[in-house]
Specification:
Hypothetical protein af1432; four-stranded mixed sheet; globular; Beta Polymerase, domain 2; alpha+beta; 50% helix; 21 strands
């Protein structure tokens, strides 16, 4: 490997003064240098050299990126908190809180408690810290990347085992981050250094192949450069042109991932043309294509559609007169600077311009849209391993570039669908998506997207995500947001049902002339829920409300705890015996009436109760008990002959219920077919369907009678019917 020259104090300050002349800024950098020179004066690196050399190298690289004075100061100071035990009060007094926050964040990366199950969990937690810090202040990761770069350059002084561990982490985390920030020069060096330590034999093999071909390649590139230069000079276009060589790891990666031989890699013969304007780029492309034969499918316009790291360039592959294949890159000076230095070029230091960290960070996130994802999540509470899986799959492996109708580029991993696209834009957009158009054509939500697709999302603010989406989404981001929504809604549902469960218990206690306040104490309910192996009081009340736990059992247990002072273990045994006994008697209707075993029970056809509905019984004359939904219009005003009834915990297997729904939609072709398909896909049985067209409003009213298994089955079915294109509203109706 090529060794970098040693950075001295004189070289460092010469580079600083090459673009910084402000006395206050220079004073800050000088103060930082002399401060760390004193603090680290007794410390040496594994190589035996003074520790200050490492700090100079990191700060020097920050200067090469034209970083602002506080970033350079932070680069010098980045180890002083940890290695010199400098307290916050002293640091802030000497410098300021802004620099302290950068240095502290850099220090925290990699410094975690050693209480993880394995190395992967430890690394995941560490990587999460990196992204959290990066989302708050981009300067943190710039300093950390430069720190890692110099550590990789001096890795030879580490034990072999540590070399491989650090190289592996660098290749899989730090190099991809550098790539996403557009820091191509740093990314390439990190990859080659990692490659050297992880697979030295392969590294030497490819380096030898490159060296063998070097003279031949250089002469061919020179001839091509001369020919293109002559062509462009005749057209009076200002330009500079040079050959470029691909770094070793990228060659190795192409050979392994694309199963290519060394001599099959087209861009080994590569030429870059730098010109003045964007228009010049397209002019040059036109002249080259007119003069040389372009290879079909190899033209890439990253000017019109920049990569997510802000990279812009035209790429084309041509065949020269000699038959040699060349890759040509065409870009402006500004684009070239951005391609090499990425985000650092975009926000390089400018004399006299007041720096504002908050506005810079907002500007960065506008340019690097993928960074906003880390703010949207509650990353500090999210499982670290799941988070790292998300970063690895959704961010690092993103290679599909789709567009919004307004031209915003959204990067996604291969296999992504419109739902993934929606959640990458915003969580609420994802929740409310009911359909999509790709390139102006209405498509199903499971359509796989391709680079260049323009995706328009159809939104309904009343809609909500379906659990079925988890089966078809590609990105972890979308899956995590859907799971989070469903968990939250499940909790809200339980909390709303819990109030009903509490009322049911109160009512039963009153019937028995028992003290409601005494038996509904939180500690008693907590004790009972623990005894029943439930997650808490809310879960207990919810189970009572949906009749998953028999109210009689609950009351008996509460009162026995009071009267007989039975211990929890005995209560659990008694409950298990009672449940086993109940299993022998299965209710045919699914309904039980407390204290009555022989009375005839029927579900009312006017409101068609479904397992899980809140229900009430009505004693008829000679026809037993008719079970209605509690909100059924027929019994709403009735006060007499009503009795409490409950869904049995042990309902007969495969019991089916009828539900009546009304669907209002905008008229279109194949609407009814699509509705029937959804019913079938979600295991509903369609008994009856009718549609009426309102010609004046151009809407269709569709009525369905469907056989389903439970209220949750119906709710899931309705949620998916709402996603059918042109559906406006769905209601469950009474006959």
């Amino acid at each position: 490997m090529n060794k970098k020259f040693a950075v001295t104090k004189e070289i460092f300050f010469k580079e600083v003064s090459s673009y910084i002349s402000d006395k206050k800024a220079l004073s800050l950098i000088e103060k930082a240098y002399f401060y760390v020179e004193d603090k680290h004066k007794t410390q040496k690196r594994n190589s035996g050299e003074p520790y200050i050399n490492h700090l100079l190298n990191v700060a020097y690289e920050a200067c090469l990126l034209k970083s602002n004075p506080k970033t350079i100061a932070s680069a010098l100071l980045h180890d002083v908190i940890e290695d010199c035990k400098v307290e916050k009060e002293e640091f802030v007094k000497e410098f300021d809180l802004e620099i302290y926050n950068i240095v502290e964040a850099v220090t925290k990366i990699g410094k975690l408690k050693n209480d993880f199950k394995d190395e992967r969990e430890y690394q995941a937690a560490n990587h999460r810290k990196i992204f959290l810090a990066m989302a708050k202040d981009i300067r943190v990761i710039i300093v950390k990347l430069l720190d890692r770069l110099h550590n990789m350059r001096t890795l030879e002084f580490m034990p072999v085992e540590k070399q491989k561990r650090i190289a592996d982490e660098t290749l899989n985390v730090y190099a991809p981050i550098a790539h996403r920030l557009g820091l191509a020069t740093i990314k390439n060096e990190l990859e080659d250094l990692s490659f050297f330590y992880l697979d030295l034999d392969k590294y030497k093999e490819i380096a030898k192949l490159v060296e063998i071909k070097k003279n031949e390649r250089d002469s061919q590139v020179k001839v091509m450069i001369d020919d293109i230069s002559k062509l462009l000079t005749e057209k009076s276009i200002k330009f500079r042109i040079f050959g470029r060589s691909k770094h070793l790891y990228s060659i190795h990666k192409k050979m392994t991932t694309k199963h290519k031989r060394f001599d099959e890699i087209l861009d080994l013969h590569a030429i870059r043309i730098i010109t003045e304007t964007k228009l010049n780029c397209y002019e040059i492309l036109g002249y080259i294509h007119a003069f040389y034969k372009p290879i079909p499918g190899r033209l890439k316009d990253y000017i019109a559609m920049p990569k997510m790291n802000m990279y812009q360039s035209l790429h084309t592959t041509i065949v020269a007169d000699s038959g040699r294949i060349f890759e040509i890159q065409i870009r402006t000076e500004e684009m070239d600077s951005m391609a090499e230095k990425g985000i650092a070029a975009h926000w390089s230091y400018k004399e006299g311009k007041k720096y504002n960290q908050k506005s810079e960070q907002e500007s960065i996130k506008k340019e690097l849209a993928w960074l906003t994802v880390f703010d949207e999540e509650n990353l500090e509470n999210e499982n670290a391993t799941s988070f790292m899986d998300y970063v690895s799959n959704d961010v690092f492996k993103a290679n599909i570039y789709a567009l919004t109708p307004k031209g915003r580029v959204i990067d996604l991993p291969a296999g992504s669908i419109p739902i993934d696209f929606a959640y990458r834009i915003h969580t609420e957009i994802g929740h409310q998506t009911v359909g999509s158009k790709v390139n102006g054509v209405l498509v199903p939500l499971n359509t796989v997207l391709k680079t260049g697709d323009v995706v328009e999302l159809l939104i309904d603010k009343k809609s909500k995500p379906s659990e079925d989406w988890l089966k078809i989404c590609k990105t972890n981001n979308a899956k995590n947001r859907i799971k989070s929504y469903l968990t939250k809604k499940d909790l809200e549902l339980k909390q709303s049902y819990a109030k009903n469960g509490e009322n049911i218990i109160k009512e039963e206690l009153r019937k028995r002339d028992l003290d409601v306040d005494e038996f509904l104490k939180v500690d008693k309910l907590e004790e009972l829920s623990k005894n029943l192996q439930l997650s808490g009081v809310t879960e207990l009340l919810y189970r009572v409300a949906i009749k998953d736990i028999n109210i009689i059992t609950v009351i008996d247990k509460l009162t026995k705890v009071k009267k007989a002072d039975l211990d929890l273990e005995q209560l659990s045994i008694n409950l298990a015996k009672a449940q086993n006994k109940r299993k022998k008697v299965v209710s045919k209707s699914g309904i039980i009436v407390p204290g009555i075993d022989t009375l005839k029970i029927n579900l009312s056809s006017c409101c068609s109760p479904i397992y899980g509905d809140l229900v009430i019984g009505y004693i008829t004359k000679g026809l037993g008990v008719k079970v209605h939904r509690k909100n059924c219009p027929k019994i709403k005003e009735t006060k007499e002959r009503l009795i409490d009834v409950y869904w049995d915990e042990y309902i007969e297997p495969n019991t089916k219920f009828e539900a009546n729904i009304k669907i209002t939609s905008i008229d279109r072709n194949f609407l009814v077919t699509d509705l029937i398909t959804v019913v079938s896909q979600h295991k509903g049985v369609l008994l009856n369907i009718s549609s009426i067209l309102n010609r004046e409003k151009l809407t269709v009213l569709t009525k369905m009678t469907i056989v389903i298994e439970s209220i949750s089955h119906l709710e899931n079915l309705i949620a998916n019917l709402k996603k059918v294109n042109s559906v406006i509203e769905i209601e469950r109706v009474f006959k």
